[in-house]
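Hi there,

I know you've been waiting on this one. I reran it after we fixed the sequence typo, so this is the corrected version. Both the input and the resulting structure follow.
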Amino acid sequence: MIEVQNLEKHYLVAEKEAGIKGSLQSFFKRQTKTVKAVDGVSFQIASGEMVGFLGANGAGKTTTLKMLSGLLHPSAGVARVAGFVPFERRSSFLKSITLIMGQKQQLMWDLPALDSFLVNQAIYEISDSDYQATMREFTELLELEGVLKKQVRKLSLGERMKCELAAALLHRPKVLFLDEPTIGLDVNMQVKIREFIREYNQRFNATVILTSHYMADVTALCKRIIVVDKGKIIFDGDFSGLLETASPIKIIGLQLERQLSATDLQSYGTLSSLEGLNATFRVARSEVSQRSAKMLSELPIADITIEDPPIEEIIGQLFSRAEVRA
């Protein structure tokens, strides 16, 4: 569904020193540098696949999505989405995709969301029967009853985001580019948005690229992730592959039956915390079985857990390694 080969986007950025002197120098001789926002990325995404697209601020995520949705013309490389060249912006292509940016809105502020939906119905040439069927479906899935007839400016952030999703998906696109779709929402609303995206993917076999700084969005929806740093892909694979690549440790948590000191526990692994009866160890993956067996046989344990480190920590380690290689 999505094919990308050596895609690049470079910007020429002007630079100047501070103050009047710097302004005068810049006026007569402007200094510029080339910023490589996207620097030769290549990947393929199958129909119906949901992929997490991760990276720090400025890594090139949003720029890539804008090129794939046709908003930006690439500096070099090839991209095809649903069989189309995005930057040609053909009508049939635009009807097959949607780009949702959590910090942007398309709803008309002083009108009810329903009016914006009718505008989109006309733009995408959706028949009345299809429009009514889709509205019934989305109203049920997103719990929009009683929301659609209110002025958008009077809606809560969560209600507005649900309406934004519905408006963007009225034409039932095959490809969804979701850029921070849950930004600013509370935990409960984030869960509802994720459930809707998952349901839409399953019902319509939609292909989804998701960027988010909330790792829970990605872990809940995507089996595959692509990690970018400074415009380059530094990882492309599933979560298990990421764990093996970037995190050589496991975290063992113990709930003890009686208080022990750090000295009592130091031989069982790297003790990262000890608070009352709760202790946490960082242990090499290859030693987890051996270490946990020793703990169970020698320590007064009420409960034990073995987990991977938080995904945020793993991604951070991956970025650190990429900087060292650079």
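Quick highlight: The first strand starts at residue 2 and ends at 15.

Best,
R. S.
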